[in-house]
């Protein structure tokens, strides 16, 4: 099957559109009001490809800033609206990132070092999930005090409140999975 240059261009254009329509630009465009009568805001909604010289976000911002220097209040309002939308998007992304950092481990007295090591190991990409088995051999490099792991797991079972305070969105099932994970990890590397 042969594809013409025009078909290839169309495929690339559609893929670029999908990628860009899923990113922060698309989110910002969705949050900025349309048809406001402000030429700069309306132009912002027509941006689709960040690689084109005439339709890039960088050029749009530079054009708006140039018009602001000339005293164009519509450009100033448009730039403020767009910046606010991007700022809001960045704040939401930061909140999501903080919430998705994984499991937090309480630092019990005398077991602070093993708590930090286990937290790093558990939250690392090698830790696995319910669908993939953890790579305990690789994770073993995170642990310097294997003998403390069992003590930590036992303490964790009886200090659920400390763990819950650090992980408010988790429940007792998550804690049980965590304790079992520590136990399997300990057995695999001791």
Largest sheet: none
The oligomeric state of the chains shown is single chain
Beta-strand content bin: under 5%
Secondary structure: number of strands:
0
Overall shape: it is: elongated
Helical residues, percent? 55-70%
Number of helices: 10
Amino- and carboxy-terminal Cα gap: 57 Å
SS content category:
mainly alpha
Secondary-structure element string: HHHHHHHHHH
Mean pLDDT: 75
Describe the structure.
With 190 residues, the protein is mainly α. It folds into two domains: 5-99, no CATH class; 112-189, no CATH class. Helix content is 65%, strand content 0%. The protein has ten helices and no strands. The chain has helices at 5-21, 24-31, 39-45, 57-69, 73-99, 112-122, 136-139, 147-158, 160-166, 172-189. Helix 2 (24-31) crosses helix 5 and helix 3 crosses helix 5. The longest helix has 27 residues, at 73-99. The radius of gyration is 26 Å and the shape is elongated. The mean pLDDT is 75.
